[in-house]
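Readers outside the structure-tokenisation community will struggle with the description of the input data as it stands. Showing the layout once, in full, would remove most of the difficulty. For illustration, here is how one protein appears when written out as sequence plus structure tokens:
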Amino acid sequence: MPSNVTEIVNGAATTPNPLDVIPGEIPFDVPYGPPISLAQAQTVIEAAVAEARKRNWKMNVAVTDSGGNLVAFQRMDGAMLASIQIAEHKARAAVTFRRPTKVFEDGIQLLHLNYLLAFDGMIASRGGIPLIDQGVIIGAIGSSGGTDSQDEVVSEAGADLMNNLATGIK
């Protein structure tokens, strides 16, 4: 029976489990590459902080290398102290799991995939984004200090700059 068909079992309708779908390819299968350089990490942070300043948001911004190790960090004046560790955690989770942390937020909040909470090192809060150069992950950026959507906007500014540098777009 096709997986999208409701089946009647013992007189009750059952809906197929979406987790039983078997993708043809592994999701987020981007290979790890060499670690981001300090100069690249600082450039990414500068772009993220510029976006935060433009919006008058006080943020903490972290960049990790392809192994999840902190390379660069900046705490803007007045940024929440608790968000220091959160920004680092978002960057580590994004690089470790090779996907934006928004995927975990959506998985728990929208899809109710609560088993995700059992993954070591996972954070279900957007604002962590892998940094990709020439098709490989060289690190990740994590931002924290505002709402999840504000954190994501700041991290996207840094990630977009890295992607533009990698493709030669200015």
